[in-house]
Design goal:
With about 100 residues, the chain is mostly helical. The chain has one domain: Metal-sensitive repressor, helix protomer (Methane Monooxygenase Hydroxylase, Chain G, domain 1). Helices cover about 75% and strands about 0% of the residues. It contains three helices and no strands. It is elongated and about 55 Å long. The chain starts with 14 loop residues before the first helix and ends with a helix.
Length: about 100
């Protein structure tokens, strides 16, 4: 697959999931803005690094939530349809989320 190829879900995401994902992204965005302000303010490195760790964790949880939905919808549907290539794709995604 070309890395720049746009693909879309066959089934729309649940509205509750979309709301949760967007809330998480907004929170992460706020945390990143907070880190930027900390840098501007000359805050102590360890304090900034703690916030970086929090952002990394929040982003990882976002990824896990999206992966869970992917497996429950896209992967499941493709497996039922006999598309075994989805297994490799999913394993590759899981490795990237480590």
């Amino acid at each position: 697959m070309d890395c720049c190829e746009e693909r879309y879900k066959d089934k729309p995401r649940d509205e509750k999931l979309i709301e949760d994902l967007k809330k998480r992204l907004n929170r992460i965005s706020g945390q990143i803005n907070g880190i930027s302000k900390m840098v501007d303010d000359g805050r102590y490195c360890a304090d900034i690094l703690m916030q970086v760790s929090a952002v990394e964790s929040a982003l990882q949880q976002f990824g896990y939530l999206l992966l869970e939905n992917h497996m429950e919808t896209c992967v499941k549907d493709k497996m039922v349809a006999g598309d075994e290539e989805i297994i490799k794709e999913t394993i590759d995604l899981m490795k990237k989320l480590k």
